[in-house]
Amino acid sequence: MNKLSPARTAHSGGSSPELTRLRVAITVFFALDGFIFAGWVVRIPAIKDQTGASASALGLALLGVSVGGVVTMMLTGRLCRRFGSHPVTVACGVLLSLAIALPPLTHSALALGGVLLVFGVGYGGINVAMNSAAVDLVHVLRRPVMPSFHAAFSLGGMLGAGLGGLVASHLSPTKHLLMLTVIGLVVTAAAGPTLLRIEPPTPREPEAETTGSTDTTGAAEPTATPSGSGGRAAPARKVGVLVILLGLVALCSSYGEGALADWGALHLHQDLHASPGTAAAGYTLFALSMMVGRLTGTTLLERVGSTATVVGGASLAAFGMLLGALAPALWVALAGFALTGLGLANIFPVTIGRAGALSGPGGVAAASTLGYGGMLIGQPAIGFMADWLTLPSALTSVALLAAVAAAIGYGTRRATAS
């Protein structure tokens, strides 16, 4: 296994060929994750028909992905510390690619839930492992490039959903998802050797920055370094509290993502009388805005810092979701969806990156578990609130949690920057 030279990588600014290859490989795994997950999502209606599951039975079966993912995330942090984030990423890429072929082989909701548990294990594992690998690389590059990896996830998701839409009427779910297995294994075989060959880089402690940095770029916090890197660690109790708070910010962000994915189109169609095509375009606009926000996230972080990015983004998301949920005009609601996407875009990657800088793979695992828990609770929470009140009122909870994220981000601005 090649070991990147600390002296070279700490000050190279990402110019070395090894760092470039490593960044490309990690980016590919982020895109693959989004691609495979979106490919599964677009075939859920067909799988429902195939299994003959009722809406409630399908809902319980779908919890398999979330349960498998959340349980695995904490275990993956330990695996990354023992075996390294790179081999775990590759192994989870193989598992995820194989597991995507299983759902169309089932013929009952119970069996579907069982195979989705396996799929959730691969999904949760790769999310923690590849984020841990990305955190290590960001720390060495000393540039806040974490959003670019999550932009690849968004792009992969859009490609996966687009391909699924194109082939849905021509290929059965079995053939389509088996095709995704082949694509996933080929991509893993192409990008995996780079991760297996190059160990996670460990930067040298910068001489002039051992007392901590101010939050100007959001690139790294030298006094709270990730696992395996040099530098002094913050007190364990303080780090644990900060990681939990960062996880809550991630939860607030992913709650909004999940809510718009599950309920956005229904709101536009049911409450604003949009056509099915326009209603579907609403989520596409939201997803596109998130991708654009993440592609420009590095520049934003370098200019205003991570605290301003989180607080400003959460505030924008709160305003945008109030428009999206309560506006009486369709075009205003669509604009609100776009603003929400821009606002939420960089919150999750920034908070996961900060948690990793504070506590290594364990921090990534803890914050990711809380973060993805937002998607787990979002779907039923919005549904119950919509029954008790109305769907527009229920969607304002996205704005409320975005405001909570802004408050936590502002309240922890000094603690996470030192």
UniProtKB/TrEMBL annotation:
One example GO MF annotation: transmembrane transporter activity
GO cellular component assignments: plasma membrane
Ranges where the record places region Disordered: 196-234
UniProt main location, coarse: membrane
Pfam families membership: MFS_1 (PF07690)
Membrane topology of the entry: Multi-pass membrane protein
Domain Major facilitator superfamily (MFS) profile: 19-417
Cellular localisation: Cell membrane
Database matches in InterPro entries: MFS, MFS_dom, MFS_trans_sf, MFS_Transporter
Keyword annotations from UniProtKB, A to Z: Membrane, Transmembrane, Transmembrane helix
Transmembrane feature ranges: 21-42, 54-76, 83-102, 108-130, 151-171, 177-196, 239-256, 276-292, 304-323, 329-352, 364-382, 388-410
PANTHER family, sorted: BYPASS OF STOP CODON PROTEIN 6, INNER MEMBRANE PROTEIN YBJJ
This protein's name: MFS transporter
Organism of origin: Streptomyces tsukubensis
